[in-house]
Design goal:
By secondary structure, this protein is α/β, with parallel strands linked by helices. The protein contains 20 helices and 21 strands. α13 links the parallel β13 and β14.
C-alpha cells in the first residue's frame, strides 16, 4: 500500500475528484446541491488537469438536465467514458435517456446528490424521493454513507459498470453528505489505474457506433420480438452483484477499506436490527454500538447496492437471532402498501425463506418507518425510539420518526436529551448571518484542523434556501477517531455568537455543556456586556460555570481595513481560545487559508 494522503473536503468534491479522473467527458447542468461537482470538473478542465490516461476531460454545460442526459447518451454511443451530476427534478429530466442507456447496456456512472422532489412544496434539501423515482430505469444503485465512501464508491461504481455493462447511479445524501466537510483518505491515481481495466475500457470503445464496425442499436420493435429481446439482459443484472462485491474486495486489498453490498454492523447475536440506506446508517451504527455496550442486542444492515437487489446476500447479512427488522425509508410513496426499501425487504425475506437462504428460519416481525424527509434531522435519540418501538408487544407499523404527527398519529416519541457522543470529540457551534463570511471561515477552520493536526474533523453548515441575511449555523466536530455523526451538534463545548442581535432571540447556553466556552461578538465594552445577556442565560452561565469571552470584532475589522468582514477576526478568536494547537501556528495557518480562499477574488 502507498503512503496515505489525507484531505479535508466535502462530498461533492470527493465525488468530482474521482469522476473527473476516470472519465473523458462530463456533461453538466447546475442544480442544488449537486452543482459543485460540475463546477469542480469545469474548473479543473479549464486549468488543464489531466485524467488517469493523461488527457484533459471535455466538460460541456448544456441548457437543461435533459440536454445533459442526451449529451451523455450520445457521447457514450461514440465510445467515450462519460459521466454527469444531478439531483431532484434534474434527475427526473434524465429518466427517458436513462431507460435507453440501461436498455442498451452502456457503461456509465451518474453521481446524484439525493434530494427531495417538489410535491406539496419545493425543497432544495435531501432525501431519497428522486433516486427512488428512478429505480425502474435499469440503472444499478450504489449508495454512499460518508464523504470517504463517496470518493471510494465513485471508483468502485466505475470499475463495476465497465465490467458488468450495467449503468450505475451512485448517490449520496444531498447536503448531509454532499456539503459535509470531512477529513478523508485521498485515492491516488495509481489505485484508480489499478481498479480501472484498460481492457474493459477498450471493450467499451469497441461497442461504439462507428461506420468502421457497423452495428444496429436503438431500433423500434413490434410485439413479435420486443418481449423476448427485453429479457436478454437478465444475465447481466444477475451477474452484477457478484461483480460489485469482487470490485469491493479488490478495492479493500488496495486500500484496506473493506465494503460489503449489505454491510452488517452490530451484535452478532442481535435480536433487533434496522435496515437503512446512505448517511443515516452511520447514525444507526454508532447508536447500536452505544446500546450494545449497555447490554442491548442491536444491529444495522447498511444497504450499499440497492439495485440489483441481491436477495441471497441480504439474507446472509441478517443474524440468526433476529426477532424484529425495522426498515427505514427516506422517502414517501403515497398510496403504496409501503415505501420502496420496506417493500423490497418484505419481498426479499419471503423469497429468501422460501429458498432456504440465510440464517433465519422463521419470519421476523418487519416494521416500516419513515425519517429525514427534506433533510429533517435523524439522531441517535430517534434510532433508540425505533428500537424501543420494535421491542413492544404491539409495535407501531408504518411509523414516522423525527416529527410530531398530530394529524394521523404515525410518529414515535423520543427523548431529545439522549446523547451518545464521546467526550473525546470537540463540538462547536458558530452562529452568523448569511453572507457575513462565518460559513466560509469555519470551512477554512475545519480544513486547517484536518490538514494541520492529527485530528479527524467534520464540518456541516446549516442555512435556509434564502441564504443571504438569515441565520447560519456552523457545526464543527474534531477528535482523535473517525467521526460517524451525520447529524447536528446539540451539545457543544464551544459556542460563538457572531452577531449580537441573536442574543435576544436564541438560547445559546442551553446547548453548551458544563464548563464550556461562550464567545460573543459585541460592540459593548467588557464591563457592560453582562447586562446585554438575557437573565435566563445569565443564570445558566453561572450554574454551568461557562467561560465567557467577548470581542468587538467589528471594531477590529474596521481598524485593520477589513470593512465589515468579521469572519477572520472571529476565526482567530476561536483558535486562540480553543487551544487546538499553538496560537502562532494557528494564525499562520489562517493566513495561508485566507490567501488560498480569497486571493483569486
Amino acid at each position: 500500500m502507498q503512503e496515505k494522503v489525507f484531505a479535508t473536503i466535502d462530498g461533492n468534491e470527493a465525488a468530482a475528484y474521482v469522476a473527473y479522473r476516470v472519465n473523458e467527458v462530463c456533461a453538466i447542468y447546475p442544480i442544488t446541491p449537486s452543482s459543485n461537482m460540475g463546477e469542480w470538473a469545469d474548473e479543473w478542465a479549464s486549468k488543464g488537469l489531466k485524467n488517469i490516461w493523461g488527457n484533459v476531460p471535455t466538460v460541456c454545460e448544456m441548457q437543461s438536465e435533459a440536454g445533459a442526459a442526451g449529451a451523455v447518451h450520445g457521447s457514450l454511443q461514440a465510445g467515450a467514458l462519460t459521466t454527469t451530476f444531478t439531483a431532484s427534478q434534474g434527475l427526473l429530466l434524465k429518466i427517458p435517456n436513462m431507460f435507453k442507456i440501461a436498455g442498451e447496456l452502456t457503461s456509465t456512472v451518474f453521481n446524484i446528490t439525493a434530494r427531495s422532489i417538489a410535491a406539496h412544496a419545493l425543497s432544495i434539501f435531501g432525501d431519497h424521493s428522486d433516486v427512488m423515482t428512478a429505480r425502474s430505469t435499469g440503472f444499478a444503485f450504489l449508495a454512499s454513507a460518508s464523504v470517504q465512501e463517496v470518493m471510494d464508491f465513485v471508483l468502485i461504481a466505475q470499475a463495476s459498470t465497465l465490467e458488468s455493462r450495467v449503468p450505475f447511479l451512485h448517490f449520496f445524501d444531498g447536503f448531509r453528505t454532499s456539503h459535509e466537510v470531512a477529513k478523508i483518505e485521498v485515492l491516488p491515481d495509481a489505485i484508480m489505474r489499478e481498479m480501472i481495466s484498460d481492457d474493459l475500457v477498450n471493450q467499451h470503445r469497441l461497442r461504439s457506433l462507428s461506420p468502421e464496425r457497423p452495428v444496429i442499436r436503438g431500433t423500434a420493435q413490434n410485439p413479435d420480438v420486443f418481449f423476448q429481446n427485453r429479457e436478454t439482459n437478465n444475465k447481466y443484472y444477475a451477474a452484477c452483484p457478484d461483480i460489485v462485491q469482487q470490485q469491493m474486495d479488490k478495492f479493500a486489498k488496495l486500500t484496506g477499506r473493506q465494503y460489503k453490498i449489505f454491510q452488517y454492523e452490530g451484535d452478532p447475536n442481535a435480536e433487533h436490527i434496522v435496515v437503512i440506506i446512505a448517511s443515516a446508517g452511520e447514525t444507526v451504527q454508532d447508536t447500536c454500538q452505544y446500546l450494545n455496550e449497555r447490554g442491548e442486542k442491536t444491529g444495522v444492515i447498511k444497504v450499499r447496492l440497492y439495485r440489483p437487489f441481491d436477495v441471497k446476500r441480504f439474507m446472509e447479512a441478517i443474524p440468526a437471532t433476529c426477532k424484529t427488522i425495522s426498515v427505514l425509508d427516506r422517502t414517501k410513496e403515497p398510496g403504496a402498501i409501503g415505501d420502496p426499501l420496506y417493500s423490497d425487504v418484505i419481498a426479499a425475506i419471503h423469497e429468501g425463506l422460501t429458498n432456504g437462504w440465510g440464517n433465519i428460519k422463521t419470519l421476523p416481525k418487519i416494521l416500516s418507518g419513515r425519517y429525514g424527509l427534506s433533510s429533517k434531522e435523524f439522531t441517535p435519540a430517534m434510532v433508540k425510539a425505533v428500537f424501543d418501538n420494535a421491542k413492544l408487544e404491539q409495535s407501531k407499523n408504518h411509523f414516522t420518526v423525527g416529527i410530531n404527527d398530530d394529524v394521523t398519529f404515525t410518529s414515535l416519541d423520543y427523548d431529545e436529551t439522549f446523547d451518545i457522543e464521546s467526550e473525546k470529540v470537540f463540538r462547536g457551534l458558530f452562529y452568523g448571518l448569511g453572507s457575513d463570511g462565518t460559513v466560509g471561515a469555519n470551512k477554512n477552520s475545519i480544513k486547517i484542523i484536518g490538514d494541520e493536526t492529527p485530528y479527524y474533523a467534520q464540518g456541516y453548515f446549516v442555512y435556509d434556501s434564502k441564504k443571504a441575511g438569515t441565520m447560519t449555523v456552523s457545526h464543527l466536530r474534531f477528535g482523535p477517531d473517525p467521526i460517524r455523526s451525520p447529524y447536528l451538534v446539540s451539545r457543544a463545548n464551544f459556542i460563538a455568537c457572531h452577531q449580537t442581535v441573536f442574543l435576544e432571540k436564541t438560547d445559546f447556553v442551553s446547548k453548551l455543556m458544563p464548563g464550556g466556552t461562550f464567545l460573543i461578538n459585541t460592540p459593548y465594552p467588557a464591563n457592560e456586556v453582562w447586562g446585554t445577556i438575557p437573565v435566563s442565560q445569565q443564570k445558566a452561565i453561572i450554574e454551568k460555570k461557562i467561560k465567557l469571552f467577548v470581542i468587538d470584532a467589528q471594531k477590529v475589522a474596521e481598524n485593520s481595513g477589513m470593512g465589515r468582514r468579521i469572519n477572520t477576526v472571529m476565526q482567530v478568536c476561536f483558535f486562540a481560545i480553543s487551544g487546538v494547537f499553538p496560537r502562532e501556528q494557528a494564525i499562520e495557518a489562517i493566513k495561508n487559508s485566507t490567501k488560498k480562499t480569497y486571493s483569486r477574488k
